[in-house]
């Protein structure tokens, strides 16, 4: 009798295939082992041994009896080629032969793996690659599991997920022509494990590479080897590097037929695919395009009832029993010791020196990461930052080895899985620094979202890598966004002193802005003779004061900022004839602005005339205008892949779908993160006064629906509800963030607005200053 493990039975129920029962086939004593097949002659011998005493005609007859009509007949010549090893057979031929020999789907997998080995024997091994089947889960980012007595393996048995079939299908499809598969889910929900199990099942014989950084990804693209999986666990690490992960490098991998397998948190994904505010810098332009290449599979935070049933049937492993029995936390999170990490941090005994200083080290590390510090935190940083999180008395009582005790506490592993902090190697026996556990970081983002960092922590971060001008510039921007203007100026000046050109520009801009705020316009004029930022701010000042003559004079002298501001002034005041006169005189800037005006007013004939005359911008705006007037969905769909104005095409398609009542298709596009479809669908739901529909989409992560819902709630004077909705989306959509802050300012909710400043919410500090002024760091309650 063949013995089938509990896991194998569950797996076959989920993925298909029959559960063998009864006696094994007569030739089982001499059954070949496909796991030992590496060459074409070995494959031929093994297939012939599997055939046993079956004749060619009996094999062909067995195929003919298959209910699947798409089976290929096994001609005698085909069988002869197989068992004589004439050439490498196709997968379809091998599957047909195996079925004729009586092998069920699950039993065919080792044979297909053998075929893969034979087919790829001629390919060179990429440097540093391992076979997928041999890859170490822990090195790939699979969280260590809690360790209990009776758990023999490092990892517990895999509990098959409902998403596995879709994930394996996506991996298989990607393997045929090259593809990018992204598993999206929160920390410790099983993203990496699900991805690894899917790749093991679909591509066990492929090579697997785990590049250390974005530069390594680019290097792989330059020397790509077919049948290779590129593993990018926690994709944000690659995207956040200086220079990021260029979409061109990923496209090169896909064009070479490689499979890119990545994981990413939902918040990181949403922040990168969200549309940006017009006229604002777009830091995620590359990332947005890159993520659109991915086939996304979501991993939910909790097990479904069917998944829990499967887990209970694998309850022979004590770790699974413990995870199932913990009702106040998620199954996968318990396996990765997430709740224990939270308790270790939040409920440390402040009367125990080791615990209180350990908690301070953990908190300092989490706060640093919370404002964007991803690099390993050094001992020097922890030494200077942690004291800010304990009382004066505890600082005075600290023993000489307080930091060693604190690090020991912070790195203690929960049930053998992971600690609040984990060391990062700098070489044999050397520690570069420590990083925080992802689960704990996500907890801190919720519980400490608006907490201000003490000055000493900011400065410890600045001193972390003191000669890194780019880091100082970034840190200055983060401090500025959180209302820490003095610190921001200090860090920017330090970066400028290191020779960073961007920092020097920002310092110069700050000096000129200070002159404007102090009303020292004559000093600004003098500075403008040598400083371009002074020229920029002077132009803004003159336009704001309506001093058109001086603006014209400076524009005529070649001041590009004065020229640009003059054109905007003419446009804002509706002086389109003046714009046209300048455009006719060859002013490119005026022509571009006039093109915008004509397109907005629907002046097709005028645009055509000026486009024929070769004026800049007219042809582009004419094309965009014609797109906005197109009424054929078929024509528009044909332009999606070849039109330079794809965003305009998408917007028009969404408008037509709504106008023609094709709401199901519109919803599908919106669900696929088509920004235009999201906005149009939200408008349709609002017109129908379907607030529940808007709320449902908002709860599912649709920021466009959330913003429209918030407006509707505010109209009903349900301000608290509107704020709650906007706050949900503020972290991933700049428009929602700005609307949240404007709503808080409108209702004089100073404390809440300052909390958004502390969290670094987009435009929060600017709106705070424009509403309440720059005086005072804390709003108080008045």
UniProtKB/TrEMBL annotation:
It comes from the Bacteria. InterPro entries: Cro/C1-type_HTH (IPR001387), TPR-like_helical_dom_sf (IPR011990). Signal peptide: none annotated. Residues 16-36 are annotated as: Disordered. Residues 74-108 form the HTH cro/C1-type domain. Transmembrane segments: none annotated. This is HTH cro/C1-type domain-containing protein.
